[in-house]
Amino acid sequence: MGRIVAGIDGSPGSELALRWALREAIAHDAILETVAVHPNPDTVGRAGSRFPAEGNEEVEARTRAGLDEIVD
Questions:
Q1: Tell me, what DSSP letter sits at residue 42?
Q2: How confident is residue 59, by pLDDT bands cut at 50, 70 and 90?
Q3: Angle between helices 56-71 and 12-27 (to 10 degrees)
Q4: Which H or E run includes 24?
Q5: Quick check: 29 and 36 in contact, CB under 8 A?
Q6: What mean pLDDT, rounded, does the chain reach?
Q7: CB–CB of 39/7 below 8 Å?
């Protein structure tokens, strides 16, 4: 059994990549792992940032919700 890793950042392109990776994982009986990244890590939590600093729990919950939508 192999492994497929897909990076996601909330963009339409990463959603397409995740859907492709999921199909490939199913077809090849592989484990699918995802890596979530912030779309602009340089601005996270900085003064004046349009992206507020979030704790790990918030990021994880938002990421899991997005993954659940795609996988279901």
A1: G
A2: low
A3: 60
A4: helix 12-27
A5: no
A6: 76
A7: no
CA 67, CA 38: separation in Å to the nearest integer?
15
Encode pLDDT of 14-45 as tens digits: 888 888 998 999 999 999 998 877 655 555 55
34: how many CB neighbours lie within 10 A of its CB?
A: 18
State pTM to two decimals.
Answer: 0.64
pLDDT of residue 28: 95
| Nearest-angstrom CA–CA distance, 8 and 36 | 5
Inter-residue contact 28 to 22 (CB < 8 Å) = no
Q: How far apart (Å, rounded) are the C-alpha atoms in residues 24 and 31?
A: 10
pLDDT, residue 30, reads: 95
Q: Are 43 and 51 a contacting pair, CB within 8 Å?
A: yes
